[in-house]
Amino acid sequence: MLLNILPAEMAEELKTNGSTKAKAFTMVTVMFTDFKDFTGISER
After folding, report:
1. How confident is the model at residue 19, as a pLDDT?
2. What is the pTM (predicted TM-score) of this model?
3. b/e map 15-43, b = 16+ CB within 10 Å
């Protein structure tokens, strides 16, 4: 599951060490969304 949400290098570091060092990324996009009744729909 970690590989679905994290870069492979970070996922491996987290599995190996139990934590990761902070990293800087100069070009990123962050999107927050809120879908009405998403939890209920996803459970079905």
Report:
1. 92
2. 0.49
3. eeeeeeeeeeeeeeeeeeeeeeeeeeeee
